[in-house]
Amino acid sequence: GKIFTTLEMKINFIRAVRRDAGVLTCIGTVVHAGSQVATAEGRIVDVNGKLYAHGTVTCILFKDTTGEQS
């Protein structure tokens, strides 16, 4: 029942992704979800846990008044 738009985004690229990096995984976590603002963080790691990038986002939340379900 909510839609959002980005207020702020910050990404830190730690190292280059090379062809031999193997499978990478993106792990996203909601840090806070209030009634008007939400924050989240994410990390991109390889199978050994080596960090390739991390970032944070702050979003503003709106009530979906269109009646459409996503």
What does this protein look like?
It contains no helices and four strands. With 70 residues, it is mainly beta. A four-stranded antiparallel beta sheet has the order 1-4-3-2, with no helix packed on it. The protein is elongated, with a radius of gyration of 16 Å. The termini are close together.
Q: Helical amount among residues, as a percent range? A: under 10%
Instruction: Describe the largest sheet.
Output: 4 strands, antiparallel
User: Average pLDDT across residues?
Assistant: 93
Strand segment count = 4
Bin the strand percentage: over 45%
Strand order of the largest sheet: 1-4-3-2
Low-confidence segments, ≥5 residues, pLDDT <50? none
The run of helices and strands is EEEE
- Our measurement of the CA-to-CA distance between the termini, rounded to an integer number of angstroms, reads 9 Å
Shape: elongated
Instruction: Compute the number of helices.
Output: 0
Rg estimate, integer Å:
16 Å
Q: Helices and strands: which structural class?
A: mainly beta
